[in-house]
Amino acid sequence: MPEHVGIWIDHEKAFIVTIIDGQESVEIIKSDIEGKIRLSGGSRSRTIYGPQDVASEKKIEERRKHQLRRYYEKVISEVGDARKILLFGPGEVKISFEKEMKKSKNLSAKIVSVEPADKMTEKQIVAKVRKFFSPAE
């Protein structure tokens, strides 16, 4: 059972740093979230020089929401048995991921901190997690 887990997450990938007995391991989970989505279908505009293809924005949003949920489920399945979890990363993804984790009472109690962080290398991510969970001197 991993003691401490740090998760750096954004829309492209998640770095999961697991620390067990002072040894860390890193796992990278890539998301399948599409960037710009262009759906076929929709309807042609009634005006002569109007837009040629009007796709439903709701359909695009729903598709992206489902992709994001599947990505979160993959990450959660990897960290479910941790005792303490640190979440960090750029943008709003870490906050929406925290909300998804808090849907489970078991995981909600394990989150010790949610912090902002810029783009980081793998070594920087490991160093941040190690420093966060190191005993205070």
The helix tally amounts to 4
Spatial separation of the terminal alpha carbons: 25 Å
Question: What would you report as the Rg, rounded to the nearest angstrom?
Answer: 19 Å
- Helix vs. strand class: alpha/beta
Tally of DSSP β-strands = 5
The largest sheet is: 5 strands, mixed
CATH class: Alpha Beta
* Strand neighbour order, sheet with most strands: 3-2-1-4-5
What is the mean pLDDT? 84
Structure description:
The protein has a single domain (4-133), classed as Nucleotidyltransferase, domain 5 (2-Layer Sandwich), CATH 3.30.420.60. β1 (4-9) and β2 form a beta hairpin. The protein has helices at residues 57-79, 93-101, 105-108, 122-133, and strands spanning 4-9, 13-20, 23-30, 84-89, 111-116. The radius of gyration is 19 Å and the shape is elongated. The chain contains 4 helices and 5 strands. By secondary structure, the protein is an alpha/beta fold. A 5-stranded mixed beta sheet has the order 3-2-1-4-5, with helices on both faces. The two termini are 25 Å apart.
